[in-house]
Amino acid sequence: MAGDEDVTIIGGGIVGLATARALVRGGAAGRIVVLEKEPAVGAHQSGHNSGVLHSGLYYPPGSAKARFARTGAEAMHRFCAEHGVPVRRTGKLVVATRPEQLPRLAELARRGTANGVRLSEVDGSAIAEREPQVRGLRALLVPDAGITDFGAVCAALAAELAADGVEVRAGCELRSVRRDGDRLVLGTTTGEVRTRFAVNCAGLHSDTVAELAGTRPAARILPFRGEYYEAAPGRRDLVRALVYPVPDPAFPFLGVHFTRMADGGLHVGPNAVPALAREGYDWRTWSAPHLRRLLRDPALRALAKRYWRTGAAEIARSAVKPLFVRAARELLPGLRGTDLVPAPAGVRAQAVRPDGTLVDDFLVHEDDRWVHVLNAPSPAATASLRIGEDIADRVGAKLA
């Protein structure tokens, strides 16, 4: 299928769709098309997550995550209200269960305050009053944290784009890129697309798309699978809202936590284990090319050496349910293994630098024809409308 577009977006996840929306609202882009390799939008990270609307608590002041999370969450609340997508401000507790966690809790409070997040410190009795089955020494109460359904957000974004005349081509996978004068020619599974500019929002495949475009990405994607359990019927009242542990500052994951979902269910997790394929949602799904790259890539070997203890513990929790339950019981001592049943997993696209360090912030690379979003993990869904505006501004400067 041939076309002549002004801007083509690769990836119909929440960031790609939000970027298309921002381009339409900015009015400078002209013809826009979104290419999505799956049969429907939001098929991977955008549709496989906890649905939490983050407040900006965790991120270093001045970082893109810190700047976009708080304003992005407010924009997402408004979008959901306008489009009939379920959304609630549930509030969140980040709970210290051991004395050695208290300095890290204080650092979180400092970061949150610097980022403009409303928060308060509460003691053990206040924790029990808010969450009767949770035990802890102290906690941060973040009243503006909330919950939504990001899969439903993607569907609403796609419907809005269709009404605005933006085509979202599902089942259209990018296979090649070449230049033809002042146009990019994108070879896809449904034919060629000619476009002035392109935006790479391919998530788990963002580094591969960058390579197709002739760019050596500043980081490579390492997929991490996050495995969840959910509360069995009759046990959804174990937690009322959102309850998190104090995270390890050396690792960009938030630990096993409790999330009341938009549908009223209670999810517990995730862990963080290396996936054996880019879309490896279980241990049975693996890719020989992906595994060969893992074995040969010095950056990933350096990462494994640095975090092998953490990685081994996460893999053990994946393989042995009682170890997962033990981690969750730090926050909820009365939890039993029979309270939890397996729930669908998600896969996070985590960028890794050549020296083996994990990229902690959003990462964007530009050239004369492309904007590549090379790292957009959590809170990217929360911040997606703001990220989309930022990308649209970058593209608009090229169109001018």
UniProtKB/TrEMBL annotation:
Keyword Flavoprotein: yes
Matching Pfam families: DAO (PF01266)
Keywords: FAD, Flavoprotein, Oxidoreductase
Ranges where the FAD dependent oxidoreductase domain occurs: 6-394
Source organism superkingdom: Bacteria
Cofactors: FAD
Family, as annotated: Belongs to the L2HGDH family.
Protein name: L-2-hydroxyglutarate oxidase
